[in-house]
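Progress note, sequence design subtask.
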């Protein structure tokens, strides 16, 4: 029987030297679900995603992607994954269509020039096919990198702060693309520190801080559960409790570096 979870992370620990960036983190992502990892800067979001992707070896815990152990069988696990990491930057001197062709090749998805142009048409970039990737705007680059992350139709897409720096239109468009991934029955694991984003796109969220998960629930249930906490009321504004109030109350007011 196919497992309900496309991803199960259990007791994950990631260290950099003596520093424990991720400490005993557990959560799971169901098939067809958009799951958000929320946390302040330095919380351990990117480290968690990097371990799921197999880019770094965890010091402890297990990661199962689509039934495959990501540590023992990273290639099997990676076949089910599409990844858009925070620091992804493509060869800026390549033409947009070449970037697409390159990654279609890397992912083993044969595509004709017409296929590639069709993809660019879908993301409203057909006219930019012969521009260099580096000449695209931030939002346009982001669209290309998402399309590349999903070019092989992966069952789980990892997105690390994909909307940081995007204008509202591009952000909305990305949210629609994320919904479209779910409509295909696939799942998305997204990191963000935008509460609006979490409430708008995520079915469930985990709040993570100092490398630990401190709450997992639907955005609405999380607000309802903490609505009457004195710490939440103390930080709420204009008499209305939002997910951001809960987030601030749970993670503290101190600004992170
Ligand atoms: N390569 C690295 N070497 C040492 N420390 C790192 C490295 N990458 C991340 N860290 C530290 O690990 C913690 C978690 O980082 P990260 O996972 O990038 O957090 P987030 O993505 O939530 O902002 C931070 O304190 C960060 O400074
Ligand atoms: Mg990060």
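Output:
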């Amino acid at each position: 029987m196919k497992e309900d979870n496309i991803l199960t992370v259990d007791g994950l620990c990631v260290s950099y030297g003596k520093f424990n960036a991720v400490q005993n983190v557990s959560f799971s992502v169901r098939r067809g679900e958009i799951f958000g990892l929320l946390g302040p800067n330095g919380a351990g979001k990117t480290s968690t995603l990097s371990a799921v992707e197999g880019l770094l070896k965890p010091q402890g815990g297990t990661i199962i992607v689509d039934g495959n152990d990501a540590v023992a069988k990273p290639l099997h696990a990676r076949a089910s994954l599409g990844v858009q990491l925070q620091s992804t930057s493509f060869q800026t001197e390549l033409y947009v269509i070449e970037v697409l062709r390159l990654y279609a090749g890397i992912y083993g998805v044969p595509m004709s020039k017409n296929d590639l142009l069709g993809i660019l048409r879908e993301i409203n970039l057909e006219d930019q096919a012969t521009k260099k990737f580096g000449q695209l705007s931030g939002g346009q680059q982001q669209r290309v990198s998402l399309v590349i992350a999903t070019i092989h139709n992966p069952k789980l897409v990892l997105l690390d702060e994909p909307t940081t720096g995007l204008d509202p239109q591009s952000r909305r468009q990305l949210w629609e693309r994320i919904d479209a991934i779910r409509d295909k029955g696939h799942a998305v694991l997204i990191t963000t520190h935008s509460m609006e984003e979490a409430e708008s796109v995520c079915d469930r969220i985990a709040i993570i801080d100092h490398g630990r998960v401190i709450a997992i629930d639907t955005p609405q249930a999380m607000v309802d559960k903490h609505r009457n906490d004195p710490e939440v009321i103390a930080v709420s504004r204009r008499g209305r409790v939002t997910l951001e109030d809960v987030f601030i109350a749970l993670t503290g007011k101190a600004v992170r570096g």
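Residues 87-153 form one domain. Work on this subtask will continue into the next period as scheduled.
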